[in-house]
Amino acid sequence: MRKRIQKFMGPGTLVMAAFIGPGTVTVCTLAGVNFGYELIWALVLSIIATVLLQEMSARIGLINQKGLPEILRIELKQIWVKVPALILIILAIVLGNAAYEAGNIGGAVLGLEVFERLPLFTSFNPYPIIVGFLAWALLMSGSYKKVEAFMLVIVLMMSSVFLVTAIMSAPQLKLLISGLVPRINSENIITIGALIGTTVVPYNLFLHAALVTKKWTGSKDLKYAQIDTVMAVCLGGLVSIAILITGSLGSAERVNSVLDMARSLEPLLGKTAPYFLGIGLFAAGITSSITAPLAGALVICGCFGLNNELSSKPMRWTFSLIILLGVFFASLGIRPVELITVAQLTNGILLPVLSTFILWAANSRKLMNKYKNGVIWNILGFGIWIITWILGIKSIMSVLEKWQLWG
Questions:
Q1: By the 8 A CB rule, do 285 and 107 touch?
Q2: pLDDT (tens digit, 9 = 90+) per residue, 344-385?
Q3: How would DSSP label each residue in 155-172?
Q4: Is residue 116 scored above 80 in pLDDT?
């Protein structure tokens, strides 16, 4: 029975952990603060999009027993197409993940700081080093099973915190249902894009396709991979909605500390509110601090055809470098704005390009045989493909606007 249950438990947990990071906590909180339940529909849409893309990505990886970079490297025959594509992937995933790792570590630190600074240190904040070391030590264990087990515990803890908080707030069913009706206007359009953008994450697609090959061995296990994907992403969606509901109780204009979120919850949770949310934010930060460097390392190894076992030297050198950069920026309080901006630009280009490749690969008889997309899946996939292009263009435009302001 135990083996049967374990068969259904795969990398979906890591995928969920990757998109429920500090950025998602912040965006969902502010969406609740500014618009109440009005944008629940945007989260539902983003979850549907994520399920579709992650399922196709996992199916492609499982059937071919290869990650997306390997398939792309093999299938793209023209050098003038292959080289720019691989360079874009490396820039977007590795450079981007190195920049965002600082934010992930910073989010975990925000959660830890609720419990006050360690008395042994007075001149600097040791928490970024502690969080970075914890992520590094787990990845250095060299076991994907250990990483998945650890992440399962942390994700369940994080989910419990936000779900229990939302339930205790006793949201009105009528308002929740009204939030499922799409409303788009000039005031909420940016937040809608942010909610979808923090859920549909390009590096998750690479991460998922690579990790299913470590858990399952072929088409006979497809149903397990699909159930794992749907359950994990939907649970992540519920957590995001719970964070939005929690945020609707507050009035914080930004989330610079857990206290910004906790003040409005004191009537509900009392003096334990900061500690309760501190645990949730720490869990969100530490899980993303692990998945971001892991995804970056898998992409590098895939692009260059290197060994992608967690204990291999190429994997260890890559994820160690990404974590080190994240710890460096977080420890010194440096916000690598230019680096993040470049990451946003490359991700804005990568997401629509990657979704195009996934849609093509999922329909390729050569790659997928009888496991290629059906008609309904293609109709839904085409709709999501359009959304990824809109998101990509929006991301590029926002970066260009920033550069104009800096200029």
A1: yes
A2: 566 677 788 889 999 999 999 999 999 999 999 999 999 999
A3: HHHHHHHHHHHHHHT---
A4: no
For the chain, the maximum distance between any two Cα atoms, rounded to a whole number of angstroms, is: 63
Distance in angstroms (rounded) separating the CA atoms of residues 242 and 166: 5
Which tens digits make up the pLDDT trace of 128-166?
Answer: 888 899 999 999 988 888 888 888 788 888 788 888 888
DSSP code for 91:
I
Non-local CB neighbours of 18 within 8 Å, separated by 6+ positions = 201, 203, 204, 207, 287, 288, 291, 292, 295
Exposure pattern of 83-119 as b/e (b: 16+ CB <10 Å)?
Answer: eebbebbbbbbbbbbbbbbbbbbbbbbbbbbbeeeee
- Sequence-distant contacts of 396-405: CB under 8 A, at least 24 apart: 396/345, 396/348, 396/349, 398/344, 399/341, 399/344, 399/345, 399/348, 402/341, 403/341
Q: Where are the alpha helices (DSSP H) in 263-374?
A: 266-269, 273-304, 313-332, 337-362, 365-368
State whether residue 257 is helix, strand or coil: coil
Helices 222-247/40-64 angle, 10° precision:
160
pTM equals 0.87
DSSP state letter for 93:
I
Helix locations, 113-219, DSSP H: 127-140, 144-168, 173-178, 189-197, 202-215
Query: What residues contact 372, with CB distance under 8 A and at least 6 apart?
Result: 362, 363, 364, 365
